[in-house]
Amino acid sequence: MVMGEPMPRLIILSLFAGVLAAQTPAAPPAKADTPKPLTYTVDTGTHIPLNLLNSVSTKHSQAGDTVYLQTAFPVLVNGRIVIPIGSYVTGTVTQVKRPSHAKGSAELYVRFDSLTLPNGVTRKFSGRMGGADGNLDVKVDRAEGKVTADTDKTGEARTVGETAGVGAGIGGIAGAASGHAITGMGIGAGAGAAAGLIAIMTSHGPDAVLPKGSTVEMVLDRPLSFSEIELN
Prior knowledge:
The chain is α+β, with helices and mostly antiparallel strands and 232 residues long. It is built from 4 helices and 14 strands. The strands form 4 sheets. Strands 2-4-7-8-9-13 form a 6-stranded antiparallel barrel.
């Protein structure tokens, strides 16, 4: 049968196609998305209290000296302690200006450089001084992170007054002996005031001192991020 000859060929081709389809591997099922690890970020501008482990002052410190500190209070993000108490912070003294009447009050700058958690995870960052113990004789410029000695201007005025009073007394005694007590008191007061001014001008004001064990405040200039794995 000439008209029926193509039919077996079609059947064979169909069977062959079916066998190939059965041997083709099925596509693997789509993998479920792996959940991203939680990240905790301590924002820029966060204030962190620190305890000084070594003293810093305009009298003994120099630019480039290292400052060692520890966190004094935990820092939390979304209820999770991210920076625990006792984390280590290192800083650097970047500038020191000794006190003098020619250059003004004593000043020093401290830059904070790194933070190390108790488990060893470390972050490099930039931070500035934002405050200090209220009982310390220093002032902190929060914008610049500058620590300035708190000079006592009334003390200088008192020095002039005291030396003027002593001079007046001595002058009065000397004037009385010569019969010119009033004149002697005026000369003595002037000499005493001049001596007081000389004493002030030849001396210098107090140094800016941050003693060991005192508390200072660090302000972050950039965010610090930690993953859940790093915190564990």
